[in-house]
């Protein structure tokens, strides 16, 4: 299942790169477009309270370990601006498909440990706000846009998400929704005929991942399960 999720996410990233390459071959005087393609690498960090559980009288007690792992994502975003005389808020909204590799490891004192991914494949609807010192208006050329974006801008965002059921693990029983609060910074660079924005954010998981009132035996030794993320995102306008 992990290999299928990774293959699907890689295919999306490959398609994004091809579109960016085609955009890059256009005229150097191209206008800035409000639509961007984004791909990202993330590292998921699981936070959980775990307790020992009885495997059997002969094997004794087992344990649960939250394991962090890298992941990746790709998406399409639309950008708008609220410009003032001396500064500007840029907002973005989009759709993103994300693969996350973080998992819970159950040690049942047997030869092989059991691993269960936490929402390995999901669709997310990010909304972001970035504050820039210099205002930029729509339909400006790429060179002007990138020049005004050369400073580091703080970023705030909200990222609700929904797991894709066909890629979910059997255990433990999880909620069918989650949400992140993102905080970080970004900076833009001019390429030949488009702009690349690099963004680094920390995503704080806001909602409990475990389903409440579940009778799944794999839920019993785990409580307060959250999946926080550090994400490096590249956007191409």
Structural write-up:
The protein is mainly beta and 237 residues long. The protein is 13% helix and 52% strand. The chain contains two helices and 13 strands. Strands 1, 4, 5, 8, 9, 10, 11, 12 and 13 form a nine-stranded antiparallel sheet that branches. Strand 6 and strand 7 (114-117) form a beta hairpin. The longest helix is centred in the N-terminal third of the chain and has 23 residues, at 2-24. It is elongated. The two termini are 33 Å apart.
Topology:
Layout: H1 2-24, E1 35-50, E2 53-56, E3 60-67, E4 69-83, E5 88-99, E6 103-107, E7 114-117, E8 121-124, E9 127-132, H2 142-148, E10 153-163, E11 178-190, E12 195-205, E13 222-236
Descriptive tags:
2 helices, mainly beta, 4-stranded antiparallel sheet, 237 residues, elongated, 9-stranded antiparallel sheet
- What is the string of SSEs from the N terminus onward? HEEEEEEEEEHEEEE
Could you say which overall geometry the principal axes of the C-alpha atoms support?
A: elongated
Instruction: Note the total helix count.
Output: 2
The major beta sheet can be summarized as: 9 strands, antiparallel
**What low-confidence regions span 5 or more consecutive residues with pLDDT below 50?**
15-29
Structural class: mainly beta
Number of strand elements: 13
Rg, please?
21 Å
How far apart, in Å, are the first and last alpha carbons?
33 Å
Report mean pLDDT, rounded to a whole number. Answer: 80
């Amino acid at each position: 299942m992990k290999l299928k999720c990774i293959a699907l996410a890689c295919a999306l990233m490959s398609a994004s790169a091809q579109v960016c390459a085609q955009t890059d071959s256009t005229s150097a005087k191209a206008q800035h477009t409000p639509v961007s393609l984004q791909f990202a690498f993330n590292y998921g960090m699981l936070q959980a309270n775990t307790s020992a559980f009885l495997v059997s009288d002969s094997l004794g007690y087992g344990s649960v370990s939250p394991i962090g792992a890298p992941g990746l994502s790709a998406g399409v975003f639309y950008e708008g601006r609220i410009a003032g005389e001396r500064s500007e808020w840029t907002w973005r909204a989009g759709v993103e498909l994300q693969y996350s590799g973080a998992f819970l490891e159950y040690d049942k004192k047997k030869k092989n440990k059991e691993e269960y991914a936490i929402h390995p494949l999901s669709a997310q609807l990010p909304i972001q706000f970035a504050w820039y010192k210099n205002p930029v208006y729509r339909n400006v050329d790429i060179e002007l846009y990138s020049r005004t974006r050369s400073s580091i801008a703080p970023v705030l965002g909200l990222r609700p998400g929904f797991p894709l059921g066909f890629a979910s693990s059997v255990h433990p029983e999880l909620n069918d929704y989650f949400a992140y609060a993102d905080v970080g910074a970004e900076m833009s660079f001019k390429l030949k005929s488009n702009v690349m924005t690099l963004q680094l954010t920390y995503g704080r998981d806001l909602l409990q991942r475990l389903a409440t009132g579940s009778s799944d035996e794999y839920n019993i030794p785990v409580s307060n399960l959250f999946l926080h993320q550090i994400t490096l995102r590249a956007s191409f306008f």
